[in-house]
Amino acid sequence: MDTIKTQQVTFKVFRFNEETDYLPYYNTYVLDVTHEEVVLDILNRIKWDHDGSLSYRRSCRHGICGVCAIKANGKGILACKTRLFDLVETFGNEITIEPLSTKRAIKDLIIDKKDFWDKHAQVKPYLVSDIEEHPEQEHLVSPHDAEKLLEADYCIQCGACHYSCPALAVNEEYIGPAAFAAAYRFSADVRDDASIERLHIVNEEAQGVWDCVKCMECAQVCPKEVNPIEKITKLHNMVFEAGIAKDNVATRHAVGFAHSIAKHGLLDEGELVRYSEGNIGVLKHVPVAMKMFAKGKIVLPWNMPKADKLDEIKKLIKSSSTVKF
Amino acid sequence: MEKLKYALFTGCTAKESTPEQMMSTLAVANKLGIELVELTEASCCGASHLQDYDDFLSLVLNARNIAYAEKHGLTMVTICNTCQLNTAMTKHRLDHNAELKTKVNEKLAEVGLEYKGTSQITHFLYAIIDDFGLDKIKEMVVKPLSQFNIAPFYGCHNIRPSELQNETHKNPENPYMPTSLDDLIIACGGVNVNYEEKNKCCGFHAELQAPRTAAVLTGNAVAGAMDANADWMVTPCPLCHLKLDTQTHHASVAIGREVSLPVLHMQQMVGLALGCTPDELGLKHHVTKVNFI
């Protein structure tokens, strides 16, 4: 029989009661944990053995309901799926347990997820389709079409990516990775009729996919491997493919790379900014550009370096391009 | 030890807005006796934006770059986190999807090239740590940076997603607790500073589309390093460098607090410790003055 390994771990647990506390505080518990225990076991032990008032959400205990998502040392996790020993291996034996968003805490680890659900609702996260009430046969989806939805369909709406997204932390209008994954999930469904409508929603500046900072944290933190940023890239692609990309700084910034590479093989940094911002918009970058120029950080157009074998690159751009803007 | 040799994918900034990054890369490689064969045929990696417009085109161009490294029979070394991500991600996708690889190779065949998947892709930071070895760097330090508190700024695209880390590196690091740059600071004799933003985003990729978001993230990063008593920051990514070095005015306005710290490229830090001169390392090319040398 395997022996049970134990080690002592110090837990700093976030405590806050919206109704009685002015500021949050942390309680410390020192527990011996076994290699079999997950974070939810520890929360249960604290509640049952030490402080019955500790509040947190739990339900399925199987990593499928998503309600027990919290943060351990800043990392978004499902409490029921994350082994303590793995956390200790990463962070050492002092573990700080916090809600997904300390700003939105109601009681201890329980948060108000209204903003999360509002963003979801914004992208119409359901199939929009005229369905015959008495169909003669099943509406079949081919395995190939179904495969496109698989990863996005695994989302359990736990909020781990939503509350780890740095773009959302700054810009409240931003729809965010979880809702974008849902927008992709339904827009990529062959049975859906609202794809274009959804793409218009995610194509808006400030709220849409263009505000993604590309930090990859949503892909990293997701406990179900939904890979939201990949879906965000797909939404970008779908916006261009559907021909509804607006002519604005964000779209020109993406397209500008293709123009620049076709001309030099490399990116012409100065020209990309001019092309993206337009001749007037670019003026706001002049003060920084002058400072950079003084330090030898700006290559003038006539000195722009070119990649060797540029003809190959030009040829490939011609033959491999799949969209037009 | 056999002499280390890599195919160098410089990326675009090394040729344009961060000349000091190119200078310091070559200076450090020279000191360590690492041979770098520059891939002069390489195109821009698309910087995670071309793929938003045309994903397939970006795959073809990145596969072409890798094909040139394969022609040399060398591991490709990158000096930009975003080049690393886009190139390693292309390799990952082609190596795991035979149908996609065939499609890409059909295009590459038009210019007489083939992507085989034989070259590894690694960032210079990890080439130094994994292949050269921290202990050997430690032995070679002639000017230990012991008087400095140095804040490591890792840059997203080297550490996330960890799937690529695991495929690429001998000692994959945990994106929630990265250590490579801290270890390198210590090897150079410096004191590594711990702060919350060290593995967070600098905002670079949204600078034009979402200027306020980008500026706040830059501000938070520099403020975090300042509050941890850092004398300067160090990063392996030229894009993070551009953001942290040149955009502090916007960042200060965005977070309502004056923030500014000298920021060194990882190569410049190693170069200083190895005894390279400030001129060799291009320290005069910084917007935020490197005032401690």
Describe the structure.
- The complex is a heterodimer of chains A (325) and B (293).
- Chain A is of the alpha+beta class.
- Chain A has 3 domains: 6-111, Ubiquitin-like (UB roll) (Roll); 114-129 and 143-241, Alpha-helical ferredoxin (Fumarate Reductase Iron-sulfur Protein, Chain B, domain 2); 249-320, no CATH class.
- Chain A contains 14 helices and 7 strands.
- In chain A, helix 3 (114-122) packs parallel to helix 7 (177-187), helix 7 crosses helix 10 (228-241) and helix 11 crosses helix 12 (269-281).
- The longest helix of chain A has 16 residues, at 249-264.
- The mean pLDDT of chain A is 96.
- Chain B is an alpha/beta fold and 293 residues long.
- Chain B folds into 2 domains: 5-123, Glutathione S-transferase Yfyf (Class Pi), Chain A, domain 2 (Up-down Bundle), CATH 1.20.1050; 134-285, 3-Layer(aba) Sandwich (Rossmann fold), CATH 3.40.50.
- Chains A and B meet through helix 6, helix 9, helix 10, helix 11 and helix 12 of A and helix 2, helix 3 and helix 11 of B.
